Amino acid sequence: MAQKEGSMMGDSLGVKSVPMGPAPGSGGGVVVEVREKKGPLRAAIPTMPFPLAVICLFLNTFIPGLGTFISAFTVLCGARSELVAERGVCCVFWLNVAAALIQIATAVIMVGWIMSIFWGMDMVILASQSHSLLTPNHRRKTFR
Q1: What are the pLDDT digits (tens) for 71-115?
Q2: C-alpha dist (Å) from residue 85 to 2, 16, 82, 89, 133
Q3: Which SS3 state, helix, strand or coil, does residue 18 take?
Q4: Distance of CA 46 to the CA centre of its chain
Q5: What is d(CA 8, CA 19) in angstroms, rounded to the nearest whole number?
Q6: CA gap 25, 37 in Å, rounded
Q7: C-alpha–C-alpha distance, residues 44 and 100, integer Å
C-alpha cells in the first residue's frame, strides 16, 4: 500500500499505519495499530463471570448451543457485551439466541458443534480478560 507522508491509512481489517518522524538514533519508523473487527453475532458474546463461562464452554462442548443459549440470559441479568450500548440489551439477547439456534441446527453436519466450542472458548477468553482487569496484580512492588 502506498501512502503519502503525513497521511493516515486504514483498511477493512482494522489495521492502521501512521508514519512517524525519525526517532532519535534510528532512520524513522511506522506505528501499526491492529484492532479486531467482529461481526454482530460475535460482538454480542457477553462477558460473564469466569466460572459461568467455563460451565457454558463445557455445555457447548457436549450439547452444542446450550451454553450459548444460557449465556443469552446472562445479558438480561446484566452481563455486558460490546453491542449493548449500540443496540440495546434486547437485541443482544436475541442475537445470542440466534447464535444458539444456528449452532443447534448445524450441529448435525459438525459445523454447529465446532462453532459451539469456539463460542465457548471466546466466552472463557472474554471472562479471563475481564477477570485480569478487575484483579490487582499483587506481585508488583512499588518503591518510594
Answers
A1: 999 999 999 998 998 999 999 999 999 999 999 999 999 999 999
A2: 36, 25, 7, 8, 20
A3: strand
A4: 9
A5: 8
A6: 35
A7: 12
